[in-house]
Amino acid sequence: MRAIGYFLIRAGRPDTPVDFGQDLEDFCYENNHQLVCVFSDSAESGHVERPGYQAMIEFMRSSGSEFLTVVPDAAHLAPDLESVGRAMVALEGMGARVACADVDLPDPLQNAFRIFGVKGVSRTRSASVRESMRTRALNGQALGRPPYGYRVGSGGALEVVKDEAVVVELMYRLYSKDGLGLRLIVQHLNERGISTRRNGRWNMTTVRDILKNSAYIGTYARFGMIVPRVHEPIIPRDVFRAAQDQTAARRPSGRVMSAEPFLLSGLAYCGYCGNKMMGVTRRQSWRLKDRRRASQVYRYYQCQSRNNQSICKYHTWRAPLLEATVLSQLTLVAEARAARGDADAARASDRRAAVLKAREDRVRNAERRFLGAMRRAAMGEITLKVVGEYLKELDATRQALSTAKSVTESPGTLDRWDSLDMLERQALLEEQVSRIVVMDDSVELVD
Q1: Cα–Cα distance measured from residue 216 to residue 421, given in angstroms and rounded to the nearest whole number
Q2: What angle do CA 314, 317, 323 make, to 5 degrees?
Q3: If you ran DSSP here, which 8-state letter would residue 434 be given?
Q4: Euclidean distance between the first and final Cα of the chain, in Å?
Q5: What radius of gyration, in Å, describes the C-alpha atoms of the chain?
Q6: I want to staple 304 with a disulfide (CB 3.0 to 4.6 A). Which of 121, 202, 278, 422 is the partner?
Q7: Cα–Cα distance list, 184 to 189, 204, 210 (Å)
């Protein structure tokens, strides 16, 4: 593979161009890589302004080729663990890989955990643990929680649980032979009292995951490996293929719709079962009399229990109507508070503090999930692409917190509703109400 070297020049440190150049040449020779060029920056300038790094990025973009970026260690790539993850996600998005010339720990994520002192991956154990897990997988030994329909036997391999296997077979028959969708399968299972392993109700996500899991044909897939026929299958291969074909046939093709956020997400609750209302986007198309095709996108809120657990009826509101209704009531709430004057000042202050704390908690949770994703990626359990999704979530929660702070510091924000963006409107709603209870013919804002 074509390789590019990059390093920081640190005064009084041994990683000078000459020293790293030799390590880089040895690394490329031992791993059969072709060294193309080397870029560097002064460590004293920090990681913000790095002309050498930017020149490397431009070189890779203009060449249109895939490269391996080799650094002495992860600290040359970025100054902290999160920034290392961001850099690696960005480089992989360009078709590049990253490696460290450190012979003891060449994996950049494992290297970063060691350098930045974050608990999670040991220098001495990471490589051996990963190899041990690969060996167990190749030998047919299960890792982690077994999928529904199986248990881990005394020898470590997956064994069929007969009662659960019958349910798995039923799901595949309903989906691939009877043509039922996920919602109807969930409804079928829950209405007949068939419970999950934990005696809970089925939902669409769980059923979807079972219908696409190759473990049910005896194939073990993990760490990028696919090991067939390592345990007893529950579903015949032709039935499994039919289910995958059915999924592909149902998936919309030829168009990409951007998922626009819903204003009331997380605040709207069904007034009948107490579960959250979920935002749904649907596109309908039809042919006009002159044979031209027409289409329309519909956005609405509906009780998620109807879709995911079949414990409620079909309660739904068109999104524009529900949002307009909430806004009109919000205006009345604000006018009532203004009339009460100082009597509501302390309560409003407490609510603002609660909103900010909730957003701060979301940021901390997103940071923990990101760190967990980095650990899993360092062990080879997930890809950098998945890490990138956790980074997007982290950025979104931080932006939401920043927006909430700016909204709470701006009096009279409701008067500027039309000029606010989506995050600002959501922050304002959270500051004004704790929940929105939605009935078929009424809406209640809970203070």
Answers
A1: 46
A2: 150
A3: S
A4: 61
A5: 27
A6: 278
A7: 9, 9, 15
Nearest partner of 87 among 103, 72, 108, 105, judged by Cα: 108
The answer to pTM > 0.70 is no
Give CA 212 to chain center in angstroms. 18
- What residue spans of 235-303 are helical by DSSP H? 237-250
Tokens read off for 27: 């690394």
Two tokens at 194?
A: 């068939």
The pLDDT of residue 139 is 59
Alpha-carbon distance of 331 to 414, in angstroms, equals 8
CA separation for the pair 114, 431 (Å, rounded): 42
Query: Which of 95, 96, 233, 89 is closest to 159 using CA atoms?
Result: 233
Q: In what order do the strands lie in the sheet with 316-318?
A: 277-287, 293-303, 316-318
Give yes or no for residue 304 having a pLDDT over 50.
yes
Check residue 128 and give its pLDDT: 52
Tell me the angle at which helices 422-432 and 345-378 cross, rounded to the nearest 10 degrees: 130
At residue 231, the pLDDT reads 86
What pLDDT is attached to residue 386?
A: 86
Amino acid identity, position 33: H
**Block residue for tokens 């079962």:** 273
Amino acid at 148: Y
357 near 86, Cβ under 8 Å? no
**Tell me: the pLDDT tens digits for 206-235?**
899 899 888 899 887 654 456 677 789 999
Higher pLDDT, 240 or 46: 240
Contact by Cβ (8 Å): 108, 74: yes
Sort residue 13 into left (φ over 0), alpha (ψ -120 to 50) or beta.
Answer: beta
Retrieve residue 68's tokens.
């391996």
In this prediction, residue 12 carries a pLDDT of 53
- Give the pLDDT score at 46: 58
Q: Helix %, strand %, coil % for the chain, to 5?
A: 50, 15, 30
Alpha helices of 43-138 — where are they, by DSSP H?
51-63, 81-93, 108-115, 126-138
Strand partners, 120: none
Q: Provide the CA 434 distance to its chain's centre, in angstroms.
A: 26
Nearest alpha-carbon partner for 302 in 250, 262, 330: 262
Q: What is the pLDDT of residue 256?
A: 39
Number of Cβ within a 10 Å radius of residue 215: 22
Determine the Cα–Cα distance for residues 312 and 306; give it in Å rounded to an integer: 5
Structure letter (DSSP) for residue 5:
E
DSSP, residue by residue, 298-310 = EEEEEEHHHHHT-
d(CA 34, CA 37): 9
What token pair was written down for 283? 């596109």
